[in-house]
Specification:
It is a single chain. This protein has 13 helices and five strands. It has 309 residues and is mainly α. It has two domains: 90 residues, Orthogonal Bundle (DNA polymerase, domain 1); 175 residues, Intergrase catalytic core (hpI Integrase, Chain A, Orthogonal Bundle). The strands form two sheets. It has a three-stranded antiparallel sheet, with no helix packed on it. A hairpin with a 4-residue loop joins β1 and β2. It is globular and about 65 Å long. The mean pLDDT is 91.
Length: 309
């Protein structure tokens, strides 16, 4: 399909076909949707730009125009989604030189960041303030995510069969397609397939809650679920007990940060969160790791100062 593209054709058309040929069926739907959004921005920003007109200046102008309404990290993602297609166009001889070389990534001033995680006292305050019924509810969902660090889509996909109460584990092997039509989907990556150890209190609570539920049906899904609905409920509770407002994903960050501060190794935290590598964990929680390293340095210095010669 790409062989029919000529230098004087629109870059928008080339990119659309490139996504169809190289990305459809090869990446997760949520990632494919991001490429489609990039495609829409091309049609808005450079609808008439021909492939042969794509050079360092026109590409930099495209990035600048996109950056006017997006933060720097979002602009960087936009650039990366375009670069693969552009480098292929260079390889095919449609563009003489790589126009993305030495591109300068700009972006508007980031919005004030909301709190990403709670400390141990704040989390305890939040969980103590939940009005928990004697049946499965979103309050129980909040508790489970806080205690396991699961992703939103992973927790939605849980069925009674995934709980092994005898061995105190929850098996994460699928996700729920809450953004589209519903139904089970594979996990984010192979490392996301994991067994998460749970405490005895959670075992006792959920063994009672799940006793009469169908073994193979999602325990939290009864109709179309929106991330915003659960986040709004969590926000309401956060405000009620006067702790920083976080999201459900923020509970995942909270879980990880509490483990790291407790001295759990990065490798163990990475496995529990289902990260594909420890590098992901290190990048995500760099600020916490640096804080712990500073404490380690203080500890080392105190230990050495006690030595005499």
């Amino acid at each position: 399909m790409l062989e029919s593209i000529k230098k004087d054709e629109l870059f928008c058309k080339y990119y659309t076909q490139w996504v169809i040929v190289y990305k459809e069926g090869a990446i997760r739907q949520v990632t494919l949707d991001k490429y489609r959004i990039t495609q829409q921005w091309l049609e808005r920003l450079i609808p008439h730009l021909q492939i042969c007109e794509l050079n360092r200046i026109t590409y930099q102008q495209l990035i600048n125009d996109y950056a006017l309404t997006h933060e720097r990290q979002t602009t960087m993602d936009f650039h990366h989604q375009l670069k693969g297609a552009i480098l292929d166009a260079v390889d095919e001889g449609l563009i003489e030189r790589d126009p993305t070389r030495k591109v300068i990534i700009k972006g508007k001033t980031p919005r004030e960041k909301k709190a990403k995680y709670l400390d141990q006292f704040e989390l305890q305050t939040l969980l103590s303030g939940l009005e928990v019924p004697q049946y499965i509810s979103w309050e129980w969902f909040i508790i489970l995510v806080a205690k396991t660090g699961m992703r939103f889509s992973e927790a939605l996909a849980l069925t009674p069969n995934d709980f092994d109460f005898a061995h105190q584990t929850v098996y994460v092997c699928k996700t729920w397609d809450y953004k589209r039509k519903g139904g089970f989907l594979p996990t984010k990556n192979k490392s996301s397939i994991r067994k998460i150890q749970i405490d005895w209190q959670t075992v006792i609570q959920f063994s009672t809650l799940l006793r009469t539920l169908p073994d193979d049906k999602p325990i939290f899904i009864h109709k179309k679920v929106y991330n915003s609905t659960v986040n709004h409920l969590l926000e309401t509770y956060c405000k009620r007990v006067h702790v920083p407002v976080i999201t459900i994903h923020g509970l995942r960050h909270t879980h990880a940060s509490l483990l790291l501060f407790a001295g759990v190794s990065i490798a163990s935290v990475a496995r529990r969160l289902g990260h594909s590598s420890m590098t992901t964990t290190q990048k995500t929680y760099l600020h916490i790791i640096q804080e712990l390293e500073n404490k380690d340095i203080d500890l080392v210095m105190r230990s050495l100062s006690g030595l005499i010669h």
